[in-house]
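re: that chain from earlier
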Amino acid sequence: MKKIYILATAIFITANMLAQTPKVAASWDDYGATTAVFPLSAKTAASVITSALQNHSGSTLTPANSDTRCYWNTTNANATVNPSTDAYFSYTVTTNLSSIKFDRFVYCGLASFNNNLRLQLRWSVDKFASSLGDLMTLTGTSYYLTSVDLSGQSAVTDSTIEFRVYPYKVGTTFTLTSAEGLSSGDGTPSSYNNGLATNIWYLDYTPAAPAASPATDTTNISFKANWISVSAATNYFLDVSTSNTFGTFVTGYNNLSVGNDTSLNVTGLSPNTVYYYRIRAYNINGTSTNSSTISVTTLKTNQSITFNPISACTYGDADIDPGATASSTLEVAYTTSNSAIADIVNNKIHIVSVGTGSVTIYANQPGNTSYNAAQKDSQTLTISPKSVTITGVTAAAKVYDGTTTAILSGGAVTTGVNTETLAITAGTGKFADKNVAPNISVTATGYALTDGTNGGLAANYSLSAQPEIPNQSITAANLTVSGSSASNKVYDGTTTAIITGGILAGIIGSDVVTLAANTTGIFSSSAVGTGITVTSAMTITGAGAGNYTLTQPALSANITQRPITITANAESKVKGNVDPALTYTITSGNLIKGDELSGNLTREPGDTVGTYPIEIGTLTAGHNYYITFVSANLTIELNTDVMSTAENQLVVYPNPGSDYVYIANIPENTIIYVYNMFGNLVRDKISTSTTEQLEIRDLPSGVYIIKLSGTQNETAIRFIKQ
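^ sequence. v structure.
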């Protein structure tokens, strides 16, 4: 049997490292191939390898008998490797590095029974698509050191990598062994023989010492330590000491892990003190040596001023403590931008004047041997004038004039600061309403302060408000009436008077005021008279009427007698009879209700047949009436009251009558004639029955004679029309 000797296999890793040292990643010892349990863990593994397993693919690559050595049979005689079907040895490693650089795959002792055997190395990085190289086999009884150089391959970022060794070209038996001092058939350096059968080597990197840089951002209690990063470092360790020999360390800064940064703020230090620091780089492969030592001196302590805004003040206020403080607790001093407005007295602000209304106050702390000078701070102080009031101003009452103007008088200003006095310039007043009313609000405007006589400056004071004015009244303006007159009238029993004309005088501006109730008045007496006083009750209306009173005009007029006409009623009597009552009728005019006539009518004397005029006699209605008397006659006649026929007596009723009289016992077809006392025919009618109705309402009052004709004997009868 030909022996194939497999040299120990090694794989090396790197990650852009400055200094690279080949190291064994994983190694497998010689073993009894027939008794080993696969997969087989590595005998040794580096700290960067978390798992390492060996296995084989099975039926066409099988273990053979062993004489304490590992024999394998292969049946693959193909000229090339087919990774999808060919049998292989499997070596799988898992790393905790982000990238790994392999150096070599090494068989320490390989021997074959046929030197045509080839062993080809492939890996999972390219899914076994290409060859990484062949391991060398020689025929003979000696074992040889052989390897595939991987240093030219790129770093691998996969966390798990599988290497496969494919036997091909000839079916044969080969063996692997663990041994040292074997010669190399392919130039593999002897340093790769570590005595174990199979080895995977990688390139190990321990980072170089970083270069420390000068400190920055130095304060009184801290500084920033700086250094330059080195390749492949994953962490840095910092030492800080007050000794350049680092015999002691600042608390918390002895081998302090600072991560993968290149600077760190070192805090909690003392002011004005010399400190030293150094740095070391680290990765999973190891820790570098110390960097150079950097010294840094902390600064003196800075101090700051806290100067809060100053509350606004008023002229005359007491001196003000600005209230600024220094973080050092040292006393703060003050200056002012304008001492004519505010001065510093005993380290307080003393108000001198209002000036422009503001002044800048500066806070200063110059520092001492322990503290730097503080940065100057400032605040603006606003100064307001002192408020004073004006009292004692009053408004005069006025008669309505259509304006809101109020006449003001009086007034004095309250005392200022330190008994300073002030004078005032009077303003103007204004009623809240121009209209007539009591207790109208009055406001003042335009009152101002002027300088006093003992140093009081108006610029340092302000009026709290315009003076308050007590309420005052506006009374009504008076209107008069011109051009009005009372009309004369005829007695009517009343005092009612008729007034005509009338124009208002005294209306202000465009006020709308109208004269009303100006057409009637009241006579002082209802009786007839001349120059009777007439009292008017005129009023005013309109939007502006409330602002006026009205003086009634002085009026008088006459009441004349009331004319009436009294007409005497004509009367008659039979000679020898007593005179009838003489009556009358008011035929024009009338008596006022409650008035009445008194006295009697008379007639001319006489008692012979004939007519006698009726006279007014003592009839009167009183002084308030003028009577026009229309006379009538009293007629004295012969007695003709009853005239009759032989058979029947002629009858007239009612007698006297007013509207109708009836004539009874008239023969039919008789003509009825009616005559007045002057013998004039005033009515005629042909009878159609024995009783006839005769209308007399339209006849004047008096005595009338009825005569009948058309009968054998003519008859007559007298009646009176009332």
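The chain has no helices and 67 strands.
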